Structures are given as C-alpha cells and as structure tokens.
Amino acid sequence: MPIDPEFKSKRQVVDQHEGHDVWGPVNPPEQLGIHGSIVAVDFDVCIGDGACIDACPVGVFEWVETPGHPASDKKADPKNESQCIFCLACETVCPVEAIKVFVE
Ligand code: SF4
Q: Which domains does the chain have, with CATH numbers?
C-alpha cells in the first residue's frame, strides 16, 4: 500500500530523527512510521530499493539501518529534506510509492 498523502491530518509527530519529524504510530523494530515533513518517506512501506537515492539530484536521502523491519532492513532516510528542490523524481521512481513530497 502506498504512503497516505493525507497522513498529516491522521497522524501525529511522535519523535525527531536526524533533524526531521517522525510521524507515528511507531513500535520498533516492526513499525517505524513516516520520516520527514517536507520529503516524507513511509518507512513501513519502503522496501529499501534505493531508486530515490540514485534519482535525487541534491542528496536528500541517506541509508539508515532498520534490522528487524518486515519490509526491509534499511530505509532511505530524508536526512537532508530541507535541501529538496521539489523535482519529484523520488516520488516517480519509488516502486512502492513510499514517498510524498510536499511542494511549498
Ligand atoms: S523531490 Fe527531487 S530533490 Fe526533493 S527529495 Fe525527491 S528527488 Fe530529491
């Protein structure tokens, strides 16, 4: 199931990670929530494909290890989401539609 584009009206920020918001619910290692508020990656959808990391022209994403998660043991973390130039390449290439970019 893809990321819910309306998640901000349904979830709450429960944590911070590497300077970005984490939207719950979170129950590690099985449930990790959504990381980011500008470039949002649903960690529970992400399969660790890495296409977004290759596609992003400004290096927004970095791998984070997530051992024990049922979908994949690494995730593309939007560590540098403030650098996003809103090209939407990541949304387009993600094979499981785990990413939602909020264009300002
Ligand atoms: S929209 Fe473009 S610049 Fe922003 S995170 Fe995605 S690939 Fe990178």
A: 7-101 (3.30.70.20)
